[in-house]
Amino acid sequence: MGTTQVEYDAALQQARTGFDEGGIPIGAALWRDGQLLGVGRNRRMQQGSAILHGEIDCLNTVGRLTDYRGTTLYTTLSPCSMCAGAIALFQIPEVIVGEATTFPGEIEFLRERGVRVEVIDDPVATDLLARFAANNPEAWSEDIGGR
Amino acid sequence: MGTTQVEYDAALQQARTGFDEGGIPIGAALWRDGQLLGVGRNRRMQQGSAILHGEIDCLNTVGRLTDYRGTTLYTTLSPCSMCAGAIALFQIPEVIVGEATTFPGEIEFLRERGVRVEVIDDPVATDLLARFAANNPEAWSEDIGGR
Q1: Around Cβ A57, how many Cβ atoms within 10 Å?
Q2: Chain A residue closest to B67 (CA)?
Q3: How many CB pairs below 8 Å do chains A and B form together?
Q4: Which residues pair with A75 in a beta bridge?
Q5: For A32-83, how does the pLDDT look when each residue is reduced to its tens digit (9 = 90+)?
Q6: How far does B146 lie from chain A, in Å, by closest CA?
Q7: Are A65 and B50 in contact (CB under 8 A)?
Q8: Which helix (H) or strand (E) holds A131?
Q9: Which region among A50-59, A137-146, B41-50 has the lowest average model confidence (pLDDT)?
Q10: How confident is residue B1, by pLDDT bands cut at 50, 70 and 90?
């Protein structure tokens, strides 16, 4: 991970905060040129929101940008189709993914749309989510559109 | 349109409300079995939000659902990749689109994911958005990830 450790940790810290709140522990952070533009975390449990996944919450916090060139989105879990669609829409060029084991996500879709994706296999992100899902299997399934 | 007129009008009314607020006039409504589950509209201008497209705002208003079976999402404009991704994630089975002229959206993606999509070519939806975009071309471009 090298120089991306600080950047990724901003996303992981959001996942930890979400876990401590009883939420689904997935976090995200948007950076550009060493500057943190915003962070977010999944808020399904905290706010009863279906759409505030970590990445969406992060982009909402960042607010309006006319251009996402040069940004990197860090997320602790591989993006679902909604979050991947947002990344493609705004042409965010790079996504660093904590893990894609718990949920494979839409990495191929992102690459087809020209996004550079790297999966760093962070066991901390996997463990946080495994602990949540073990205690809240229905909420976790609901969050990723399971039936 | 037949029996869908009332359902679609709930989305169109949201677009009109958005226009009157100075917002990007795109609205959405989620229905099931003749019951309105929630409505939403684009809030980029009103709330400085990048992610509150009409469909996303609508799904946020609806809140947590364990199952979207039997729902139909009405939207005045063809869904972008973020909104289409949300529809795919939650397996919303049917989307009625007001128009796909101003913005083609991700209709093929939705069909590939098994969503039934119908475009009704509503000139009122097109006109509202044309009037907004003529006066706010940069905000409109920003909303759909243009550069």
Answers
A1: 26
A2: A147
A3: 96
A4: A28, A97
A5: 999 999 999 999 999 999 999 999 999 999 999 999 999 999 999 999 999 9
A6: 8
A7: yes
A8: helix A123-135
A9: A137-146
A10: very low
Residue pointed to by tokens 């959206």: B105
Phi, psi of B119 (to 5 degrees): -105, 125
Q: From residue B98, how far is each of A1, B28, B103, B119, B136 by CA, in Å?
A: 46, 10, 11, 6, 21
The pLDDT, as a whole number, for residue B4 is 73
> Cα–Cα distance between A67 and B110 in angstroms, integer?
26
pLDDT tens digits along B80-91? 999 999 999 999
Q: Is A67 on the interface with B (CB under 8 A)?
A: yes
- What contacts A52, CB < 8 A, 6 or more positions away? A40, A42, A43, A44, A60, B60
Portion of chain A with pLDDT greater than 90, in percent: 95
Let me know if B101 is exposed, middle or buried by CB neighbors in 10 A (0-12, 13-18, 19+): middle
Tokens (6 digits) for A12: 């992981």
> What gap in Å lies between CA B2 and CA A114, rounded to an integer?
41
B52 pLDDT above the threshold of 60: yes
Residue with tokens 């992060």: A58
For residue A146, the model assigns a pLDDT of: 84
Strands (E) across chain B are located at 27-32, 35-41, 71-77, 94-99, 116-119
- Count the alpha carbons within 13 Å of B53 in the hemisphere toward its beta carbon: 30
Measure the CA–CA gap between B59 and B38, rounded to whole angstroms.
Answer: 7
Question: A53: nearest CA in chain B?
Answer: B86
Q: Which of 20-59 (A) contact B at CB < 8 A?
A: 44, 48-52, 56, 59
Top-ranked range on mean pLDDT: pick from A35-44, A137-146, B3-12? A35-44
Distance in angstroms (rounded) separating the CA atoms of residues A52 and A21:
15
